[in-house]
Amino acid sequence: LPAIDVKTTHAVLALSREYPGYAYPMIGLHPEEVKEDWKEQLAELRKILEEHRMTGNAGQTADSPLISDFIAVGEVGLDYYWSREFENEQLEAFEEQVKWSVETQLPLMIHCRKAQNEMVHLLRKYEKEAEELLSFNKFVLGVGGVSTFKSSHLREDLPAAVPMNRIILETDSPYMAPVPYRGKRNESAFVIEVLKTLAKAYGVSEEEFAEQTNKNVESVFHL
Question: If pLDDT is split at 50, 70 and 90, which confidence band does 110 have?
């Protein structure tokens, strides 16, 4: 469960406690939520992150950077699609949260829209330091309902360029509902339609595609 600010970070923590083994929390400030109070938001999120670094994976020492109730720093990144009003603030906020990922050894969940060049330029600075986590050859792509749209070329493009072990399924709820629910409020349960579409595109059974994408999630998020 990705968070987008302080309020939703508390919400995803609560929901994850209610559904252990099904829901796992992330922590982060989404680029569209970077406003005048972004520094205060980051400071509070950092405090929450520190508080929850001591209660995670059993069998590790309390000062281990891997211990955390959170499985990732996210959803963070850059989004210049609607406006560049907070362009510099987004860059600063994103870089700060990249540092959190490096320090805590938690993976990054990145949202990037109309800012690919800026994103790659920023991440290059951390490629060596975060080799195990941020090295580009370890990235996976989250694919959602867009892949089911009639106008989408993902059904042809993905199998031609992206192996199945680099794909995870993304609900993108409550937006971008897949066919046949397009135009309605997206629900997490609808992700089955993405699975069906991509399995057909890759020429494998739904069971095989589900098994592989589940493995990918477990590998990235250390579940």
Answer: very high
